Description:
Blueprint (H helix, E strand, L loop, with lengths): L1 H10 L1 H6 L3 E3 L9 H8 L7 H11 L1 H4 L8 E6 L4 E3 L11 H4 L4 H20 L2 E2 L5 E4 L5 E2 L2 E2 L8 H11 L8 E4 L5 H15 L6 E3 L8 H21 L3 H4 L2 E10 L3 H13 L3 E10 L8 E4 L18 E4 L11 E5 L3 H13 L6 E7 L6 E7 L1 H6 L1 H12 L7 E4 L3 H14 L6 E4 L12 H12 L6 E9 L3 H13 L4 E9 L4 H11 L14 E7 L11 H14 L6 H16 L30 H17 L15 E5 L1 H7 L4 H10 L2 H4 L4 H16 L3 H4 L2 H9 L7 H8 L2 H10 L2
Parallel strand pairs: 1-2, 5-13, 8-9, 8-10, 10-11, 11-12, 14-22, 17-18, 17-19, 19-20, 20-21
Antiparallel strand pairs: 2-3, 4-7, 5-6, 15-16
Amino acid sequence: xxxxxxxxxxxxxxxxxxxxxxxxxxxxxxxxxxxxxxxxxxxxxxxxxxxxxxxxxxxxxxxxxxxxxxxxxxxxxxxxxxxxxxxxxxxxxxxxxxxxxxxxxxxxxxxxxxxxxxxxxxxxxxxxxxxxxxxxxxxxxxxxxxxxxxxxxxxxxxxxxxxxxxxxxxxxxxxxxxxxxxxxxxxxxxxxxxxxxxxxxxxxxxxxxxxxxxxxxxxxxxxxxxxxxxxxxxxxxxxxxxxxxxxxxxxxxxxxxxxxxxxxxxxxxxxxxxxxxxxxxxxxxxxxxxxxxxxxxxxxxxxxxxxxxxxxxxxxxxxxxxxxxxxxxxxxxxxxxxxxxxxxxxxxxxxxxxxxxxxxxxxxxxxxxxxxxxxxxxxxxxxxxxxxxxxxxxxxxxxxxxxxxxxxxxxxxxxxxxxxxxxxxxxxxxxxxxxxxxxxxxxxxxxxxxxxxxxxxxxxxxxxxxxxxxxxxxxxxxxxxxxxxxxxxxxxxxxxxxxxxxxxxxxxxxxxxxxxxxxxxxxxxxxxxxxxxxxxxxxxxxxxxxxxxxxxxxxxxxxxxxxxxxxxxxxxxxxxxxxxxxxxxxxxxxxxxxxxxxxxxxxxxxxxxxxxxxxxxxxxxxxxxxxxxxxxxxxxxxxxxxxxxxxxxxxxxxxxxxxxxxxxxxxxxxxxxxxxxxxxxxxxxxxxxxxxxxxxxxxxxxxxxxxxxxxxxxxxxxxxxxxxxxxxxxxxxxxxxxxxxxxxxxxx
Length: 748
């Protein structure tokens, strides 16, 4: 149990901080009734792996539940084909929100089921997305905006078990399983074994349809054969009783929009006199008002709204195979970077032109663990700048009521902000500034006295007073959420003003969601102030790349791998490797991009949409990366998000923009190569990718120094898996001694 909670704490901190309750589901094969769980909580062993683990955890609760001290934990389990949701099992946690708010258990189970299935769809990329200018032709011949290939959600044993868990209540009295497509056969066979095991019998018989039933004579004959085989197997297993007493068969539909398959199968059973009674349940229901049991009704999603009359005209049709349920084509959709994607970053860079305020590939040390930032914004330097101080002061003076207590974390940037805030606010009265990393105010130990003083200050504030919670940056929101939880647990009555110097999440929707959650006040505290305030002095969308996503860590890994294989680096690359190691302390500013030692450093020319001409390489890269991240996260009408391929859709940056005629500065081209993922650069279509390769060859063959100076970055991009270099490009690179050395080295 402690290992599970440790994983939640370390690997899912953002979700954990936003959660009101943790719901734990044991293995679907581990069955027990609520009374067994209640006895295990009191210390009795019940012979269940989960209950025995729970009993052991409860014998040392301070250790086992140390990572979840204030979190209610419920258990979601099965006693066979019935689902149960328990009360809180955490000795230190409050009631679950289900119990405290008297929520209906059926509604809670439905919500949990919907969210888990949505999570499986997201993780498996089962939803084939809407494609601008195109519709899918489903196996039913119906045109659709998007297509859900349910078979994809079977990406792991845990995923299959999850679907089976939610299907168990629909197996009551069923003696066999029929599924509408072989593509969900893993779910069918797993479910058959689970039900048989719970009943103490062999697994239930399973049959499946080989392709979509369109009502044609040929396909109905195939379906009839499947029903005949199922009838024969049931008849044999019951010594002929099935013929006299029709068997109830669970008919599981992967997804349905119209329910037409139900009519086809019912007609077959009636016409052929099969001794079967079909009981239907759909995993996903995409059509409204079908009167059909389903695990998840997604009919309200925009992707599954019916097409309006005439809407299909002039659209490209993506055919979906009626047997494999895979699209038969692949579409490249080019995304174009425009002013709207980069304007926020450019405005920030123009406001704060100081060299070093933005740096790259830098470790950041605070009062918490050291984090590596591919893009680092020096918030201490930011807090000292005049434009920031003016805007910050204006925001603080507008707060109502004026805060008399300021709380910041224990690191230099936050301390500077806290002192600045106290000086700004103290004109209207005394302001106390306290520092604490978590607001877990232990009343024992070496910090007892300052903790007691801070607790007294917080609890001394009335409902007509205010507390300012101040930090330098918002990236994931973990710290602010932790502060909120501690203040709520303490019973703080004051209005809370949450403020950060810069909100720079990877998705601005995360910041909006955090503002909504942090702004909430309980009804008893909302008498004077309906909401807390949540604000940032500046907002910016930036990738949250740490070591795994940092383009410079990827470059360093190339050199480290060569050294580990006993290859001696040439002097230029040995020095580059040392620079990348040293940069973790101070960051890369003017020398971030790779180029041979004979060319002048890459610089930006006039008129760029990304930054002013005197901007550092770090600032230019940050602006390009911000534009790309905006395109990954901000929905635009009729445009898919930039990102990984989701068959049949490939979203790529338009190659002619950054390799031909729009963004012609080598510094911007290099920034695109660093900031974009392989799927965002390389076309899925062979012809389009050959055109892109031709553009790369044109660049390295160009005699102009300000064009071919991109050579080293192109070689590095290929080494990092961002597209192969053509033979024509390699020949051109080898014509230059420095680039030949880079090519020979990085392609080893």
